[in-house]
Amino acid sequence: MENKINNQYATYYKRRPTEELKKITSQEELYHEEARVAALLELQERKEEISEKDREALESFLKKEKLKVVEKQKNKEEAKIEEIELPEYYSPAAILGFSIFFSVIFGGILMFSNLRKAGKKNESFFVLGVSLVIMILSGFVAHFYQMNQWIILLANVSGALILIEYFWKKYLGYQLKFKRKSLTKAILISVGISVLFAIGMIYFFPEQFAEIR
After folding, report:
1. For tag attachment on the chain, is the N or C end more exposed, with fewer CB atoms within 10 Å?
2. Phi, psi (5° rounding) for residue 88?
3. Alpha-helix residue ranges (DSSP H) falling in 27-174
4. Distance in angstroms (rounded) separating the CA atoms of residues 131 and 158
5. What is the pTM of this model?
6. Helix/strand/coil for 179
C-alpha cells in the first residue's frame, strides 16, 4: 500500500500550514486517528521530521488499512465464487405468481423443477401430484358453482401457500441459498399452454366457456 490515505482530510491538509499540521498530530485527545494520520502523511510529503512515536503510529495504521483492503477484496472474491456456485431455483415469489396468475399446477411445475434440481426425485413427483389434485378439485368445485372464478383463485392461492410454506420448508428449507432462475422460458411456456387451453375450451365447450365469470 502506498503511504497515502484518501479521506476527507487529505485534500484539506494540503492547503494548511506546517505548524497547524504538527499541532494536529500532537493532540490525540482532540483529533481522531484518521485526521492525525492524514496530517502525518502530509508532513512526510513536505519532508518534515516526525517523532518515532508518530512514525510507529503511522505504520500501524497503514498496516491495519492494508489488512482491511485485503480482507475486503477476499470477501468480494469469496462472494463471487459463492454466487457462481449457487444453484439456480425458481423463487417462492415466482411459484406464488405462477400459481395465482396461471394455475396452481404451474406453480407445482416450478416446485417440481426445483426439487429435481435438488436431487429429490420422489418428492418432486409427490409435489406435482398434490398440485394436480388441488387443480382438479378446484375445477370440480368451480364447476359446481358455475365456474365461479373466486373459487379457482382461492384454490390457487391456497395451493401456492402449501407449496411454499410446507413443501419448500420441508424439502428445501428457508435457509437455502440460491440464484433466482430466469422466468422467461417458464412464462412463454405457461402463456402458450394457457392460450391453447382457452382455444380448446372455446372449440370443444363453447357453452361452458361462456359461463365462466
Report:
1. C
2. -95, 125
3. 33-45, 52-85, 92-101, 104-117, 121-144, 149-161
4. 10
5. 0.54
6. strand
- Assess if residue 1 is contained within a domain: no
Domain hosting residue 179, numbered range: 88-211
Is 3 within the bounds of a domain?
no
pLDDT (tens digit, 0 to 9) for every residue of the chain, 213 residues total? 444 455 566 777 777 777 777 777 777 767 777 777 777 777 777 777 777 777 777 777 777 777 777 777 777 766 665 556 788 898 899 999 988 888 888 899 999 999 998 889 999 999 999 988 888 887 777 666 665 667 778 888 888 999 999 999 888 887 888 888 888 887 887 787 767 766 765 655 555 545 544
In a domain, 184, yes or no: yes
Q: Can you say whether residue 122 is alpha, beta or left, with left for phi > 0 and alpha for psi between -120 and 50 degrees?
A: alpha
Give the cell for residue 7: 479521506
How many domains would you assign to the chain? Answer: 2
Give the span between the Cα atoms of 47 and 18, in whole angstroms: 11
Q: Which one of 55, 85, 115 terminates a domain?
A: 85
| Nearest to 213, CA basis, from 152, 168, 132, 155 | 152
Plot region of 146 (φ>0 → left; ψ -120 to 50 → alpha; else → beta): left
